[in-house]
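Ops channel
N.P.: pipeline sanity check, posting one input/output pair.
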């Protein structure tokens, strides 16, 4: 069951169906011109959700809130008693629940196979993601082809299509492999022609295995991208590269600094470019974790393997510590922090939020990063907040994540564009597929 309260049958219906049912029950006047609602107004598909704690996504919280969803959008949001509910609207009691915006994941990697990509986007919706950004490892233009499609019960997605890097034999051949300035600029021009949402570059030698993209190549890439009105996000590892990328005009870091603790020079450079956004993508903390909360989509045998592999790892803890200290310093300095998970694991959004809090960011700030800031970064004007005029993409939780960030996992329901995601159906499909 999706809900423990008395409105399960109501919530299982779509707003349009509810409006139709209400009209049929009330009936029409004999001449066909009568009003369909008791109050004499027009029929409405509005649904009023009442009584929940509302975490708005902008840092504000309404302890006992009301929000009205109509035509797939938030029509009104406010405290109990302060929101006018339309005549004929369905009312849903969410007392004891907490509501937050659907998550916006600004860095992951989606499949280039259509059916698998749809399954991934639905899996992500199951865990509360309403929108995601696939960064640079696609082939065949699949991300652009599917970008504007409506997929039921699925997160929407933007794309960098193919990223840009130096040749990396043995790794993905999806990105452009470039070795000259003109090759870099030509790659950007092709991406601009395809109208990508952002340009991705990799500036990393992969532990000394490859020659990394140097400043004399990524500077013209950034220049060319800006000339086409495109942002550039950089995969980065080393402190010195982060400094040089700031000097070169990069817009977004797709990872934090991972080799050394941030120094004063980096902080000064970033202070000169306060518009640059960090998407931390923290490494795992290297501690044993309880993964039982994944049982809704991970088959039992696979989950058992994952649980057995989740053990304390001192080396991983040390590596995490560098990134955690850096993230805490960046947050304290007021650097704009967004949210992403890398990889393609649908549940990783909740692990990333926990890790950001473990690093020292407050739960409230983590939620802002994972909703409003990520939506703003990727120019999703209708996402990231529970506010009038935004798309009704929200998560209903059984407990308050401001008290414990892991409560984001205690999902009662997910809504995208005002419709409830069929989490039970997604769960059944994924578990069945995992046992085939």
């Amino acid at each position: 069951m999706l809900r423990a309260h008395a409105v399960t049958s109501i919530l299982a219906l779509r707003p349009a169906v509810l409006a139709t049912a209400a009209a049929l029950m009330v009936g029409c006047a004999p001449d066909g011109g009568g009003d369909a609602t008791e109050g004499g107004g027009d029929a409405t598909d509005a649904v009023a959700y009442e009584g929940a704690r509302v975490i708005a996504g902008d840092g504000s919280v309404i302890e006992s809130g009301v929000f009205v969803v109509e035509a797939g959008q938030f029509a009104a949001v406010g405290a109990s008693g302060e929101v006018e509910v339309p005549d004929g609207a369905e009312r849903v009691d969410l007392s004891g629940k907490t509501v937050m915006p659907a998550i916006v994941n600004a860095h992951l990697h989606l499949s280039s196979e259509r059916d698998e990509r749809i399954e991934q986007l639905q899996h992500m919706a199951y865990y509360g993601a309403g929108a995601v950004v696939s960064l640079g490892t696609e082939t065949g233009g699949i991300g652009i082809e599917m970008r504007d499609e409506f997929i039921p019960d699925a997160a929407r997605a933007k794309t960098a299509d193919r990223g840009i890097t130096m040749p990396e034999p043995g790794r993905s051949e999806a990105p452009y492999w470039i070795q000259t300035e003109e090759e870099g600029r030509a790659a950007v021009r092709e991406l601009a022609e395809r109208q990508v949402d952002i340009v991705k570059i990799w500036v990393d030698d992969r532990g000394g295995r490859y020659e990394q993209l140097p400043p004399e190549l990524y500077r013209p890439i950034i220049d060319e991208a800006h000339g086409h009105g495109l942002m550039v996000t950089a995969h980065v590892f080393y402190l010195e590269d982060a400094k040089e990328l700031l000097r070169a005009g990069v817009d977004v870091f797709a990872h934090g600094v991972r080799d050394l603790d941030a120094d004063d020079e980096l902080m000064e450079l970033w202070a000169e470019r306060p518009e640059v956004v960090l998407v931390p993508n923290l490494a795992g903390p290297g501690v044993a974790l309880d993964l039982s909360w994944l049982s809704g989509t991970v088959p039992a045998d696979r989950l058992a393997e994952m649980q057995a592999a989740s053990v304390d790892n001192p080396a991983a803890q040390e590596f995490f510590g560098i990134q955690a200290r850096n993230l805490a310093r960046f947050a304290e300095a007021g650097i704009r922090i967004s949210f992403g998970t890398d990889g393609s694991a649908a549940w990783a959004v909740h692990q990333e939020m926990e890790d950001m809090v473990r690093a020292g960011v407050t739960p409230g700030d983590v939620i802002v990063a994972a909703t409003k800031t990520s939506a703003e970064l990727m120019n999703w004007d209708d996402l990231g907040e529970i506010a009038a005029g935004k798309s009704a993409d929200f998560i209903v939780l059984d407990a308050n994540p401001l008290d414990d960030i892991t409560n984001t996992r205690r999902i009662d329901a997910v809504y995208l564009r005002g419709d409830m995601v069929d989490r039970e159906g997604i769960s059944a499909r994924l578990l069945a597929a995992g046992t085939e």
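N.P.: looks fine end to end. The longest strand covers residues 61-70.
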